[in-house]
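Input/output pair, single chain:
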Amino acid sequence: MGDDDVKLLKLSEVQKLCGIPVNTLRMLIEDDQLIGVARSGSGHAYLREDAVPQWGQIIEILERQRALHLRRAQMAFARVRTELEAVANDLEMAVEEPTLPLGDDLTAFKAYSHRSDQTTLLSAMQRLEETVWRVRSYDEALRKARRAP
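Output:
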């Protein structure tokens, strides 16, 4: 049987087969965690009938993704801590040596840098916020999926 002969299922049909909510399926597709995904010309996602995952497989993927994002949140938090310490050092130096210019971390902490080699407190906080949001998204999806079958 060729690829053209395989039936494509709407996500609502996949939900009925595996018991996983459509919004969770969409999240997994966006994070490239499901195989057999096809997109229509307008961008709608479909899943090949022969690639519909079982409920237990989805649970494993959700657990793995939740753990991954927890590790990323830990790293982002560590970066925030480092940036806070740098601002604290600049504050201490400014108090001890009031005639010197303010330190770079103090003057730039509210600036956002897209460069990975120039992290500021604000950009570190934003990265932490993004990773925590991903943790919460996967945690919520996992809790809903566990109640599904």
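The chain is about 60% helix and 5% strand. The CA atoms of residues 17 and 52 lie 8 Å apart.
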